[in-house]
Amino acid sequence: MNTKNLEKSVKSRGIVAFAANTETTDYVSIAKQTLTVASKILKLPYTILEPTTSDFNQRYDIDTGKFVQWNNFNRYSVYELSPYDETLVIDADYLILDKNLNSIFETPWDYLLQRNSHALTQEWPNTMGPNSLPFVWATVFAFRKTHRAKLFFDLVKRIQNNYGYYHSLFNIRERNYRNDYAFAMADYILNGYCINTQSIPGSMLTIDQKIKAITVNGAKVIIKDEDKSYVVPKTNMHIMSKAYLQSDDFKNFVDII
Amino acid sequence: MNHKEQQGFLTIAANTPEVDYLELAYLQALNIKATQQIKSFAVIVDPATNQQIQEHHKQAFDYIIETPASITGPYGLEVQAFWLTPFKETVKLESDLLFTRSIDHWWTAFRLRDIVLSTGCQNYLQQPSASRRYRKLFDDNNLPDVYNGLMYFRYSKTSADFFRKAAEIFNNWNTVQSTLLNCRDDHPTTDVVYALTAEIIGREFCTIPSMDFINFVHMKPAINGYPESARFQDMYVTEFDRGMIRINNVNQYHPVHYHEKDFPTKEMYDYFRSMAGVC
Fold this sequence. Notes:
A: globular; B: alpha/beta; three-stranded mixed beta sheet
C-alpha cells in the first residue's frame, strides 16, 4: 500500500474573527455575515471566537458620534483559540471582496500584519503619536502556529497587561488601549527593535463615514454616504459604520455576493 | 608626511568653554576599539587641549598630534588632517559620532576612491533623510550633499589637491562667501567648504552616491522631526544596551552622530572602556 499521502501532513487553514455583543452593537451577527462572504471568496472555513474576557473598552462610534462599548481585549489568545494551523484573523467589520489574501499563504512568515491603510474621506496619521513610531492595523492579520508567532502573541499579552509602561515607552498619544498599537510594539521588539517591512501587501481601504448603501457593479464597488457616491475597486474594505453593517441593506449585499 | 600605519581613525579635539571635545574623542576612541577590527585611533589637538590630556586619554589614543590653534575659525584645523594623520588611509570622524557595530567592510568600498565624503544622512529610523532644513545653502548653490562627519582619504594626489583647495577656501572665506547665493556664514563651516571643494575638483572623484550606506544617523532636530528648541533625549526614550544605542525603540545600526554633546553617559564610558580593554 502506498502510504506516502497519509504521511504527508496537510495544514489546515481558516479564517477567524472575534465577536462579543455589546449594548449597542450585534457583533456576532455582523461577524457571521462578513465571515460568510470571506469564506465564499477565499474558499476557506471560518470560526467565530468569543473574547476570553468580558471587560469592555470604548470606541468612537461614527454613526452616533458617541463613545460606545467594545471588547477588543485579549486578541493575543487567538494563537491558542484558533483551530487552524494557518489562520487569517479579521475584525468583524472587515469585508473581504477579493482573493488576494489567499496568496499571502504562499510566502514564508510566522505572522503577517497589515501596515498601510487609507480612508475614503480623511488622511490617517501613520504613527502612534507625534513623536512615536508607525503603527499597524490589527483589523486583518495572519499567523502560523510557530514558535516565533507564539512569542509575538505572548508579547502582545505582556504589552496589554502592562499597557501604561509601554504606552509611555513608545510615546503613544491616545490613552485608550488599541490592538493596532500593541501589535506594532510587539512587532518592533520581536524584530530586534527594528522596523519590519514585511506586510500584507497593499493598503487597506477603510470606509470611515456613515454609509447608506454599498453596491457591486462588476469590478467596482459603489459606496453611498449621506452626500456622495464613491466608486472604488472591488477590494477588501474595513467598514467602520456598524449601523450599516446591521442594516437590511448590508444583509441584501451579503446575499447578492 | 610621516605615516606610521596603513589604516586608522582620526578625529580633531579642540576644547571650547562649552564643550569638552577631548572627552568626546576619548569615548570615540574607546568605542572604536570596542567595535572595530581596524581600530588605531589618532587625535589632533590644539595646544590648550593638549594641556588637558591625562593618563587615561593616552591609553585610548594611539597617536596624539598637537598642532597650533586655528586662525581661520572654529573649524580651521579640519583641513590639516591630510598632513597630520599618521595613517596612509584615514577615516576622519567628527568626535560626536559613535559606532554600534563594525564598519570594517566599508574600507573595501572606500578604496574605490582616493577620497570619499559621506553623502546624505539618515534619521533615527535608519531612513535617508528628506529634510533640507540645514541644506538650503547647498541646494541654492547646487553643491553636493556631502557631510564631513565621516570621510575617508588616502595618501594620494587627489586627496592632497582636495585638502589644498579646501585650505584655500578656508583662508579666503570672505571672498568665497561673496560668490555664494544666500550665504550668511561669517565663518567657513567644514561641510560647506568640502562641498565647494568637491564641486571644484569634481564630485565624481570624492563621493560614491551609489554606496548609499556610507553615511550616518544625524540627530539634528529637523532630520528627525522634532522641534528645533528640543534635545532628542527629551523627545525620545534613549537607551544604551550593551553597546547598542536605541532611540525611540529603534536600534541604531548605522554610525550615530549624536550632535547633543551631553548625550554620552558614564555607563557608555564604562562599557566601552571594559570592552576596549583599556584601564
